[in-house]
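notes to self, project folder thing:

trying the whole complex as one job this time. last attempt i did each chain seperately and stitching them together was a nightmare. two parts in total, labels are on each line so i dont mix them up again. if this works i'll redo the older ones the same way
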Amino acid sequence: MVSQLTPGERIAALITLILLAVIGLFMAAAGRADPLGAHGFVVLLSSTGLIFLLLSKSNGTPPDPARLLQYYDDPTKLGIILSMIWAVFGLFIGVWVASLLAWPDLTFDAAWASFGRLRPVHTTSVIFGFGGNALIATSLHVLQRTSRARLPEQFSPWFVLLGYNLFCILAVSGYFLGVTQSKEYAEAEWYADIWLVIVWVVYFGIYIRTLARRQEPHIYVANWYYMAFILVVAMLHIVNNLAIPVSMGHAKSYSAFSGVQDAMTQWWYGHNAVAFFLTAGFLGMMYYYLPKRAERPIFSYRLSIISFWGITFMYMWAGSHHLHYTALPHWVQTLGMSFSIVLLVPSWASAGNALATLNGAWHRVRDDATLRFMMVAAVFYGLTTFEGSFMAIRPVNSLSHYTDWTIGHVHAGALGWVAMITFGTFYCLVPWMWKQERIYSPKLVEWHFWLALSGTIVYVFAMWNSGIIQGLMWRTYNESGTLTYSFLESLVAMEPYYIARAFGGFLFLAGAVVGSYNIWMTIRMARGVPATPMDDLPVSRLAPEAGE
Amino acid sequence: MALEERDPVTGRMTTGHEWNGIKELDTPVPKVVIFFLSLASLIAVIYWVLLPAWPLGTTYTKGILGVDQRATVKQRLEDAQAERSAWMQQIEQGDAESIRADPNLMRIVRESGRTLFGDNCAVCHGIEGTGGKGYPSLTDEAWLWGGDAESIAETLRVGINAAHDETRASQMLAFGKDELLTRSEIGDLVSYVRSLGKPGVDDRSSAEEIARGEEAFIENCASCHGDSAEGDIEQGAPNLTDNEWIYGGDRRTLHTTIYSGRQGQMPSWQGRLSDAERQILTLYILSLQEK
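result (full assembly):
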């Protein structure tokens, strides 16, 4: 890691880390009577730890200039490992939270283990920890290969990867301490949010600078999606997190928005986080690794174009479908609903483009669990987007809203689409990155595949049943015109489904543990024949910015 | 880079682009995609024509159906109100006895009372009203503040030790903690109270102990619980002779009760539930007795 940095980059890294340590110290001092102080120590300790690492590994010798003839994959490797660690942690917390609903005593009377704190720990760990690290790792890999250019320098990718994980740690540890701004999927407080903006701008910079030096005449579809992901997430994050801190010594802040404007901003953010983080980013992943693994050309370039622009344009309008039948004006709801319906077409076009790409490679899908992961991901993507558009229709929403159906829908997407495409990608990428001939055990990949698939199906079916029963019980009237069921009775009816859901989640977690073991053993496997790494086309010119 | 070539599987030409081995076919957009895109867009336009949809500065397009969710919900609430008003009025204005004599009204009371009870009372008193530790059962004969319709209605209205101005108020002193009684006196009292049940519990306490307990009882407890320990519904003091216990009748719990005192709470429901809803709950609670 350090040996690949040029002397100039080592100094830049040192200055950055010292600056960060000073900020950490300031936070610890100013926030000594507040959870902010604890986070100051987290920042201080992680930056001094890295300073120590940097100084102990810097031996004054500049890196081998021959490195510029190769792609820079070290950040991708660490990103994959971090992503899997977050996956196991986040899924474990997910199983715990799911079990809490069936067995509420599992909080052990501890505030940090209450449902309201564990839930954002789960969502942030899986979405940002697992998903985000996977996106950063794969995007840097795809960017270089499809541009035939090495990353512009060695410092900023590390800044992005490590800085991003610092954000995740601040967010998750904050929830345990009770720090939250109570915005779903944007719970992290102001100082962590500001830090993420800095990290994100550098991330976008890497993308632009590498693309500017690309040796291919066209920019590949995967990069359109990755760029849309980076750009739009920055915009969403900044606007939704506009807030005024109580003081520089407090973690607490107040949103710039209030009332229905706050709700609309939050769901404009929330839905587009699904669109541009969990959809666009992972479509980028799919567009590179699926054709690569299937060894087939993309089914239709034209379909890629209309899907991309359809998705980017239409999603922006759809957020208000989260606020049907609320104080939000009716016209905003109609717009959100109508664009959600149109959105189905480009979504299915993307899923169809992926599945049609497999024409001529279906025998591989049958034999190769890695490619099957990607195929099933595309199928779940199609199912989930259909369900999403359906649930966005107001009368349907009047049944589904506030019920477990929504939870089922989200997990069909998160487990079936996002996690499956990521696992498929990792099984592809890990042998390439560590220059192994193959994954340690294809048999364990099969195990992981079936655990993940059955876990997802158990989960989603449990929540469909539970959600629809809930929705119906809440709206059933008796002959005299009053509600038939009390809320308690609907909870009693949920219990078997909550147990089934926790079991489905457990299967999925077990799959991720098997996968982590398999990836770890692949990394540790004795180097086989160092086959020309994945037959990459060579880097076509030296990186001009990478001088001393 | 690479030039266009024919894909042997599909027979399509590639676009000629290539990225690290990935190529793309020049397949035209399938007609079915164009069809559904047009269809979905048409549906969207129909929605916009029919419903409120586009903002126009300070106003918005109202849609030719003239639908507005606020008007809709208001109308539906009024309709539902009207549908219920026939029996609602009878229950609100009728007296408890005549309603109880009307099987049709009582069917409605049981139906809607069960849900009202489940949503508002069951958290403490249990879904069947059987209570639990610290929360009285509503299905037995024991009543703190009276078990007739009027008393129950009043308890629901003002609550017990609640925020209501006219709340029913009651507190049992902490005889041990506040050093009104010694530890051994409390022990005697516990023996005495346990001997009161029908049949009394035999703790193998000596007759002297029980006699001393009785003396202490008359001096300290009888002002609320009465000389015969049968309680006083005017003060919310429970009957100690009926073998029905709110906190528990074992020695340990009785000792805690006398040592630390008790002050149970029930919220006031005036303002949270309408007069008719409280009437339904009153009658529903009375109907629990009939089982």
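what i see at first glance: Residues 542-548 of chain A have pLDDT under 50 and may be disordered.
need to look closer tmrw
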